[in-house]
Amino acid sequence: MDFNVKKLASDAGVFFSRAMQFTEEKLGQAEKTELDAHFESLLARADSTKNWTEKILRQTEVLLQPNPSARVEEFLYEKLDRKVPSRVTNGELLAQYMTEAANDFGPGTPYGKTLIKVGETQRRLGAAERDFIHSASINFLTPLRNFLEGDWRTISKERRILQNRRLDLDACKARLKKAKAAEAKAAAVPDFQETRPRNYVLSASASALWSDEVEKAEQELRLTQTEFDRQAEVTRLLLEGISSTHVNHLRCLHEFVESQTNYYAQCYQYMVDLQKQLGSSKGEIFSGTFVGNAESTSPPAATSPPAVAAASLPAVPTIPVVPTIVGVPSTVAESVLNPNEVKPPASGTRKARVLYDYEAADSTELALLADEMITVYSLPGMDPDWLIGERGNQKGKVPVTYLELLS
Predict the structure, then answer these.
(1) CA of 42: how far to CAs of 34, 51, 251, 330, in Å?
(2) Measuring CA to CA, which of 35, 82, 209, 402 is 20 to 30 A from 347?
(3) Secondary structure (H, E, C), the chain
(4) Measured distance CA(85)–CA(66) in Å, rounded
(5) Angle, alpha carbons 40-41-47 (nearest 5°)
């Protein structure tokens, strides 16, 4: 018990001494041991690394999980060291609703068939999103968290110890300076008068006492200087390890970009496949409409700006039309409107710039590349959402929504 009380009293004295030294430094009444420029640059680099790592980590979490409530839930599960329950992605939930709607409307109807196709694509997109989030969390977020919760905590702990060692060192320097000043003052005022021998004895005794105090302060200073130097070296090694942290984070960043690239490539491929499916099914749905309206002198009223532009294009002379007959396959109509058998009008064709890449669904369509220029015109009876496009010797149907018609 006595030992604990003494230790407590000693710790309280050390704390009081450090507090006094820190306060005097802030008030400009005490000198402060300055670290070398290289050490200060290491400290600044470490602080910058910690701050930016925190910001990147938080924003990446927002990117992967925009819902703040879900992020809080995942944080609590992580702190409780429990497995985060599986959560349905927005794409998978949308796919579920579309499939249920298709079953309700009738899976055999055109709308129901399209809902099923789009829903399946949304399900695949949701699964790809889940895989991307899982990969990014393991390969990118986890290393950043490990740095903040592991290496950085160790660095912060050693920096606090270094700060305490520096305060102890500066306090010892202050005590030594005061002891030397008192010793010099005591040695400078001895009384050598024979009528006052007692004052001389007291002065000589005080000088010897301050000499002992100076010697004790110098010994403490050497000890605290050694401890400070040793702690400074430990802290320096940890701070220099920030370079290795940057290398590790760079590797993790490359893995994150690779995961993100694969994710977006998958999404793009899924949407291209869906577009092909919808394009072919759209041709089947409107094939009868092409033939049924072939005898009309003008296309039906458009419902979108691009269709209006298509309707204003010059039309080639009317070609022979086969009327729609019950039981006749739709391929008959397609053969009548085969773009390869139609010659463009002598004048009045328009130029168009392609806005997006488009892959032809069949031989009657023309594949497009973004930013290329093609010649377009309309055919009587065509669906207003489509035009005939020409590029050199190639010819085929092209969707209006993929074009910017030029004057």
Answers:
(1) 14, 14, 22, 76
(2) 402
(3) CHHHHHHHHHHHHHHHHHHHHHHHHHCCCCCCCCCCHHHHHHHHHHHHHHHHHHHHHHHHHHHHCCCHHHHHHHHHHHHCCCCCCCCCCHHHHHHHHHHHHHHHHCCCCHHHHHHHHHHHHHHHHHHHHHHHHHHHHHHHHHHHHHHHHHHHHHHHHHHHHHHHHHHHHHHHHHHHHHHHHHHHHHHHCCCCCCCCHHHHHHHHHHHHHHHHHHHHHHHHHHHHHHHHHHHHHHHHHHHHCHHHHHHHHHHHHHHHHHHHHHHHHHHHHHHHHHHHHHHHHHHHHHHHHHHHCCCCCCCCCCCCHHHHHHHCCCECCCCCCCCCCCCCCCHHHHHHCCHHHCCCCCCCCEEEEECCCECCCCCCECCECCCCEEEEEECCCCCCCEEEEEECCEEEEEEHHHEEECC
(4) 17
(5) 90
Is there a contact between 387 and 402 (Cβ–Cβ < 8 Å)?
A: no
Dig out the tokens for 309 from the structure: 């532009």
In this prediction, residue 194 carries a pLDDT of 46
Q: What angle do CA 73, 77, 81 make, to 5 degrees?
A: 170
**What is the distance of C-alpha 270 from the center of its chain?**
24
Question: Bridge-partner residues for 391, per DSSP?
Answer: 394
User: Residues for the chain: how many in total?
Assistant: 407
Which pLDDT belongs to residue 318? 42
Alpha-carbon gap, residue 20 to 16, rounded angstroms: 6
Give SS3 for 87: coil
pLDDT at 372: 92
Please give the Cα distance from 367 to 19 (Å, whole number). 78
CB atoms near residue 352 (< 10 Å): 25
Is residue 263 within 8 Å of residue 128, measured between CB atoms? yes
User: pLDDT means per 10 residues in the chain (407 residues)?
Assistant: 60 69 69 86 95 95 85 72 77 93 92 93 94 93 94 94 90 85 74 49 64 85 92 94 95 96 95 87 49 40 40 44 38 48 70 91 91 88 87 91 87
Q: Which residues of 119-131 are buried (b: 16+ CB within 10 A; e: fewer)?
A: bbbbbbbbbbbbe
- At 185 the pLDDT is 79
